[in-house]
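Notes to self, Fructose-6-phosphate aldolase:
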Amino acid sequence: MKLIIDDANLDTIKGLYEYFPVDGVTTNPTILAKEGKNPYEVLMAIREFIGPDAELHVQVVGKNADLIYEEAHMIRKRLGNNTFIKVPVTREGLKAIKVLKKNGFPVTATAIYTHMQAFLAGKAGADYAAPYVNRIDNLGVDGIREAKEIHDIFRNNNMATEVLAASFKNSQQALELAKHGVGAATISPDVIEGLVAIDAVTHAVDVFIRDFESFCGKGTNMLNV
Ligand SMILES: O=C[C@H](O)COP(=O)(O)O
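result:
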């Protein structure tokens, strides 16, 4: 399962890249708006940092297929070929996904709340389909189960589309999807940090250090004993 950062703050992205095995960056209009700068300024800085081959996912805002198609061209021109065009799965969005795929764009079908949206996005040729796990939970439906079932729909219908699960509230949800073998999860920085912020682990490491120092002396380690 690919692990992708769902954020647009360059300092945060740099920090996560230093510590975690991450595979790229996803953004959406809300995430970009939080940066308070021109969206292309933010995105071009991210692209420069992650390099031309890493996955960057950028969402369109247009409500009809023609505008979405034009936005996609501009996004590709300014941010490079390996930029996934995130298209919400509406009626117009599906039309746009078909046209974009015919023209060789990498596409992430997004704003997915139902199995049927995901199935149609897969049929239209999307590379990824992004179910919003936490938001689905908030509708009273099990978002993790739905993401797993969407993965199964793709595999059972011989579709190449991968699930790019989005909208997580905790690290356990991401682990559940890794166990099921879904293609990718895009996770906010605080939830990524939560993947290893485990009190029991911190305690175990502290005890190792305490025991070592009680025998070898304060401030010792395997360099200076
Ligand atoms: O792009 C979609 C986001 O991953 C949704 O996440 P959120 O529900 O935490 O805003």
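- The chain has two domains: 2-194, 197-225.
- The first helix runs from residue 10 to 19.
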